[in-house]
Amino acid sequence: MERVVEHLRSGILTTRYAPGQRLIEADLTRDLGVSRGPLREAFRRLTAEGLIETVPNRGALVRRLTLTETIELFQIRTELEALAARLSASNVSEPDIRAAFEGAIAPIWSEAPRLSAMAYLEENKQFHDAIVGASGNCQLVTLHSQLQLPLIMFQVSGGLTAEILCHSVAEHREIAQAILDGDAPAAEAALRGHLERAADLTAHMPPSTFRAET
Question: What is the residue range of the signal peptide feature (predicted)?
């Protein structure tokens, strides 16, 4: 059953299963070589994680967020990562933390143009996870992972143009440099500006990007 859960979780977080897509039991039991029992238990697990939702007369679907849910998650994310940025800047003088942080964020210094939103999302996730990881706060790491932020980013990826990606990379570098300099106020300010801009861009995306409000 763990294999089924991990297959579905990985598929959702890499958009092999897209937001709003129906997960058809007959297809999945055949493809995964399992019975309906373990599959339904996997659905229950992933529903509890916020990755799947059950809709009457449609069955299990990959969770698709409303605009309100997305903005609310951005608000929570901003506060959590602002704290992480401050803590990371305070911790970065420790050699092990600095080395791990520098290694994790190495892709942001590449000058190669980011032409594909989908290809960029892993770099984005790795960067933000690195900030939280360098905070040294295990509870913060757990809370951050529970937000399922990749789900938000994959849902809005269609609106991420090459210009937006370029701007985002520049902001990542500003945040990273402030952390590496040990400047906690600057790191927090840059992080807040980055995520507030992202939330504003998200709020102005076409309504079809999101699930209808209920």
Answer: none
Q: What angle do CA 9, 13, 15 make, to 5 degrees?
A: 115
Report the alpha-carbon distance of residue 157 to residue 116 in Å, rounded.
9
CA distance 108 to 64: 29
**What tens digit of pLDDT does each residue of 152-207 get?**
888 888 888 999 999 999 999 999 999 999 999 999 999 999 999 999 999 999 99
**What pLDDT digit, counting tens, does each position of 118-141 carry?**
778 889 999 999 999 999 999 999
- Give residue-wise pLDDT tens across range 44-88: 999 888 889 888 888 899 988 899 999 999 999 999 999 999 999
For residue 8, the one-letter residue type is L
Where would I find the beta strands (DSSP E) of 49-194?
Answer: 52-55, 59-62
3-state helix, strand and coil shares in percent for the chain, rounded to the nearest 5: 70, 5, 25
Q: Are 92 and 132 in contact (CB under 8 A)?
A: no
Q: Domains along the chain?
A: 2-62 (1.10.10.10), 67-209 (1.20.120.530)
Q: In terms of Cα–Cα distance, which of 103, 83, 94, 81 is closest to 182?
A: 94
pTM: 0.85
